[in-house]
Amino acid sequence: MNQKPVTAIIVGAGHRALVYSELAKTNPELLKIVGVADPNPVRRKKTMEYFGFSEEMCFSSAEELAGKGKLADAVINGTMDEQHIETAVPLLEAGYDMLLEKPFAVNEKEMRFLVEVAKNNGSKVMICHVLRYTPFYYSIKERVANGEIGDIINIQTTEHVSYHHLSTSYVRGKWANSKKCHTTMLLAKCCHDLDLMMWLMSETKPVQISSFGGKYQFKKENAPEGAGTICMKDCPLVEKCVYSTKRLYIDHPDRWSFYVWDALEHLENPTIEDKIDLMKSDNPYARCIYKCDNDVVDHQSVLVNFESGATGTHNMVGGSAEPRRQIHIIGTKGEIFGNFEESKFTVLKIDPSPEAHNGECSVEVVDLKVSGDMVGAYGGHGGGDERLAEDFVKFIRDEEPSLACTSIFDSVPGHLSVYLADKSREEGGAPQEVLI
User: Fold this and answer.
1) Is 131 exposed, middle or buried, given 0-12, 13-18 or 19+ CB atoms closer than 10 A?
2) For residue range 45-76, what is the model confidence (pLDDT) as tens digits?
3) Which of 91, 143, 346, 398 is deepest in the core (most CB within 10 A)?
């Protein structure tokens, strides 16, 4: 059956919304971008020119767009976390369906309010839990759903946030200060991981959560003796410090370009001299890593008790030498463990026969071959970005979505687990009851 492409308007023309919107370029029969709403005129102009719609479809805010009535099938909402309520609610009430970036709300009150708005308006709201769509996690979910390792007894997830990611996003950057961004480290970085845990444990639900964590490394008292305040302006350690802005951003100018150089986006082709000048200014990314206003944790552990009696743990540790996500699921018939960055996992099944490995189990190594340079060929987030966008089109068209599809209602257990884990951490690890 031939169908017209789903029409969508970008709200918040930042990195994430544009990544999902790229489907309109690669598969124009599925998605068509017909407008943009963003307070930044440079971003509006660039988005208009890139997707080829008229200036009449450019709006300065979600409120202005909502006031025009429904002009497309859906909205791709990539605004900052704390803006989701103010941007999503008027557009849902105007009749739009929505692809909404995670976390979809910054606290439990907002979460329950937005869920109620979606329910009352009969809105189709899909949340961007993109890691569900990666070949790695999707394949593991299929194995679990097929009962290959039996009933889950325990699930362990870990995320090691690399030193350059932690310093860029969570010490110097957008998610460094919870009073400004309104999100915690666990919510901003690990709502992916708690969502994955709830998705893999979907036959049961969380009933109790406890958590510990803190800020260990990046604080003023840990600054090296003689350290300045602006690395490339007044610090004698700029060539030695692992975290100097010269070594992280000038020596690697493309690694975090969509964050670090956002103040230069008005320049069509900023030079390395432009970037050096920025790193000598009062720009947030130019600051000494030990003298920022960051207040989020750099390590946190979460323990979850499920209704079935199973347990789960998640450990986030920031400042690691390289990024790493790992998972280990133990069931009544076997276990699965693997490394996301390698896109490889192992399935062990209990087998006491003499032919089995060590007379104990069968061993299957699953190599999805989506690592290193291959990740780019499959899209961002280990192959998940474009697959998520494609599933959103199916979701809007009432076609059968994939096993990974996450409506706003499906996303509640993971978000609520994060909020309660942070509450437990603030209360010294006190257990929190989960009421979904």
Assistant:
1) buried
2) 999 999 999 999 999 999 999 999 999 999 99
3) 91
The DSSP H or E segment spanning 397 is: helix 385-397
H or E element in which residue 346 lies: strand 344-350
Global model pTM greater than 0.85: yes
Q: Percent of the chain at pLDDT above 90? A: 93
What is the C-alpha separation between 180 and 88, in angstroms, rounded? 20
Would you identify the CATH topology of the domain 6-101?
A: Rossmann fold (3.40.50)
Structure tokens at 328: 């280990």
Sketch the domain layout of the chain as residue ranges: 6-101, 134-217+295-371+407-433, 220-286
Query: Given the structure tokens 């998610």, which residue do they identify?
Result: 175
- Per the DSSP assignment, residues forming a β-bridge with 155 are 312, 329
CB of 212 closer than 8 Å to CB of 329: no
Q: Are 292 and 227 in contact (CB under 8 A)?
A: no
Lowest mean pLDDT segment, chosen from 142-151, 270-279, 313-322, 355-364: 355-364
